[in-house]
Design a protein that fits this description.
The protein is mainly beta. The protein has 1 helix and 9 strands; from the N terminus they run αβββββββββ. Strands 1-3-4-5-6-7-8-9 form an 8-stranded antiparallel beta barrel.
Length: 137
């Protein structure tokens, strides 16, 4: 039994190095374009934190447009560097996110549902960064 742990202990770092060499970015992290409007002081934008819990990935999601609704936690589907997740109404203007994680951040699209119109997709780039709320430097 101990030899299995030894083999895993030797192979796991090699697997991580292979992913890094191939340019695979860590999925977990904070992705945000949240900013304060200089004229009004209102917060605008989207921020989500992707975290891993034993059963899979989850996003702590919040959308701001002057004000905000409470944040939500939703499951995230991960396939390689591609992620997708749905946001329940009325948590923000977008209902579904799909895109790619890189060292730069999240690049993809969000789908905006509207009862009177066709589903609209909007390009989204959220930089990988510290949270807007993290004041420590």
């Amino acid at each position: 039994m101990h030899w299995k742990a030894l083999v895993l202990g030797l192979l796991l770092p090699l697997s991580r190095e292979a992913n890094a060499a191939q340019g695979a970015a860590q999925i977990t992290g904070i992705y945000s374009d949240l900013r304060s409007d200089k004229e009004t002081g209102d917060l605008d934008g989207t921020e989500f934190l992707i975290m891993f819990q034993g059963s899979g990935y989850f996003a702590f999601y919040q959308f701001w447009e002057g004000g905000s609704l409470p944040p939500v936690v939703v499951p995230v589907t991960v396939k390689g560097q591609e992620i997708s997740f749905s946001v329940p109404a009325p948590s923000g203007e977008c209902g579904f996110y799909k895109g790619t994680i890189s060292v730069r951040g999240f690049d993809g699209a969000c789908s905006i549902p509207h009862p009177a119109y066709k589903l609209t997709q909007v390009r989204v780039h959220l930089r990988r960064k510290r949270s807007y709320w993290d004041n420590s430097k």
